[in-house]
Design a protein that fits this description.
Elements lengths: L4 E2 L6 H12 L3 H13 L6 E5 L4 H12 L3 E5 L8 H9 L3 E3 L6 H12 L5 E4 L3 H9 L1 H6 L2 E4 L2 H12 L7 E3 L4 H4 L2 H18 L7 E5 L3 H12 L3 E5 L3 H9 L3 E2 L2 H7 L2 E4 L9 H6 L4 E5 L9 H7 E8 L2 E6 L4 E5 L5 H4 L6 H21 L7 E2 L3 H14 L9 H7 L7
Parallel strand pairs: 1-4, 2-3, 2-5, 3-4, 5-6, 6-7, 7-16, 8-9, 8-11, 9-10, 11-12, 12-15
Antiparallel strand pairs: 13-14, 14-15
Helix pairs in contact: 1-3, 1-4, 2-3, 2-17, 3-17, 5-6, 10-11
The structure holds 1-(beta-D-ribofuranosyl)-1H-1,2,4-triazole-3-carboxamide.
1-(beta-D-ribofuranosyl)-1H-1,2,4-triazole-3-carboxamide binds next to helix 3 and helix 17.
């Protein structure tokens, strides 16, 4: 057994193994890729450092990377998202892993540093903290790393800025930008898992509530859709006119946060931007308002402002803190403003992570094969891969679709045909 790990308690390994097996039974696409990789060994000789939420789904990815021949060292990408049972199971089966629930900021970066000790050849990020650490502190290592991948919107944004400034030292695949990732994980995954997090932390009734979604991007859209499905009156806030217009035409009320703050019962931020809910908003909220965030970083809700307005605070339920304001009103902050779907629930369901992580796996295989000939920029995965993965996924769900005949294909590309 490996000792290159630090987890909360190795005794939880058996529970973690059961969780991972459950996820494996729901991730047929990734499992099929694993089966093939066992013989092909596409990651043989690769050392993969990963920094991504330690969940049962991530464990399925980690097992797949190892089955494909890679050595792996892992850390979590959020202080509150590690599932300690899963981390224990991974450590027990010999994976180098540094992750436990409730890390301090210093511990968070210590874990990342530990995963760099084996000098990775590939990096895998969710939010770009690992790749930033390599770029800021390990210049020699950055020069030898073949390439990296990035799982989420926030990370991809930052990496694109870095590449634009000529600061990126190795190629990165924007896994997030694959259609089989953002059009599914970000929408349907975030939609379900965020409501799951709010429900576990509150057990509140959604029907008839004013449910305020800040940001109508892919994540916000998914959350709004699912909240409406449970009978909530959904209000959206936006800064981008086209997104606001889409929300209006979907039938949601759209208004500035200053107004939404006064009437909302439940709030969730999904913007990637800081200070979306701040002092003046808390000051005008109704007694009992519930506030949460599903964006990658904990900056969307200004907790400092809330602390200043509050005269008392207590944990009323797990992942649910009651702040009593000076005038007696109570406001409930979920999961300390960290992503409520991973901190208060289990993240996205396995079925949807199946495609996200199949993309991760294929991106790493591509880097192992061709990474040395790529430029130091942010790449997208080829759109054909999306079609292949979607077809595989449909097959596992027992769904068949049509295919164009040769005649139909010829018609499609015939620009001489008209009325
Ligand atoms: N995410 N992972 C999970 N169950 O492992 N759930 C959500 C899981 C990822 C998701 O792909 C998103 O882009 C990212 O977490 C945000 O940090």
């Amino acid at each position: 057994m490996s000792t290159n790990y630090k987890v909360a308690d190795l005794k939880m390994a058996e529970q973690g193994r059961l969780k991972i097996e459950w996820a494996e039974s729901r991730m047929p696409v990734l499992m099929a890729l694993r089966e093939k990789a066992k013989t092909d060994q596409p990651l043989k000789g690769m050392r993969v450092a990963g920094c991504l939420h330690v969940t049962k789904e991530t464990a399925v990815l980690v097992r797949t990377l190892r089955a494909a021949g890679a050595e792996v060292s892992w850390s979590g990408c959020n202080p509150l998202s590690t599932n300690d049972e899963v981390a224990a199971a991974l450590a027990a089966e010999g994976t180098s892993i540094y992750a436990w629930h409730g890390l301090s900021k210093d511990e968070f970066y210590w874990c990342i540093e530990k995963t760099l000790e084996f000098k990775p050849t590939l990096t895998l990020d969710d939010g770009a903290d690992l790749i930033f650490t390599v770029h800021a502190k390990h210049h020699g290592l950055a020069a030898t790393i073949i390439g990296g991948t990035e799982e989420t919107t926030t990370g991809v944004h930052r990496l694109r800025h870095m590449a634009k400034d000529g600061k990126l030292k190795y190629p990165v695949f924007a896994v997030n930008d694959s259609e089989t990732k953002w059009d599914f994980d970000n929408v349907f995954g975030t939609g379900q898992s965020s409501l799951d997090g709010i429900l576990r932390a509150t057990s509140v009734f959604f029907a008839g509530k004013n449910f305020v979604v800040a940001g109508f991007g892919h994540c916000g859209r998914g959350v709004a859709m699912r909240a409406r499905g449970m009978g909530a009156n959904v209000i959206c806030t936006e800064v981008k006119p086209t997104q606001a217009l889409k929300a209006v035409l979907e039938g949601y009320r759209v208004m500035p946060m200053d107004e939404a703050a006064k009437i909302g019962d439940i709030f969730i931020t999904a913007t990637g931007v800081k200070d979306i809910i701040k002092g003046n908003h808390f000051a005008s909220m109704k007694d009992g308002a519930i506030i949460s965030n599903t964006g990658h970083y904990d900056v969307e809700i200004n907790i400092g402002d809330l602390e200043k307005l509050a005269k008392a605070k207590r944990e009323i339920r797990p992942n649910n803190e009651e702040y009593t304001l000076k005038d007696g009103r109570r406001v409930y902050l979920l999961a300390q403003g960290r992503l409520v779907n991973l901190a208060a629930a289990e993240g996205h369901p396995s079925e949807v992570m199946d495609m996200s992580f199949a993309n991760q796996f294929l991106a790493l295989c591509r880097l192992a094969k061709d990474g040395k000939s790529l430029d130091k920029k942010v790449y997208e995965l080829p759109p054909e891969q999306d079609q292949e993965l979607a077809l595989l996924k449909l097959g596992t769900m027992g769904v068949k679709i049509d295919a164009l005949t040769a005649e139909q294909k010829a018609y499609e590309s015939d620009y001489s045909a008209g009325t």
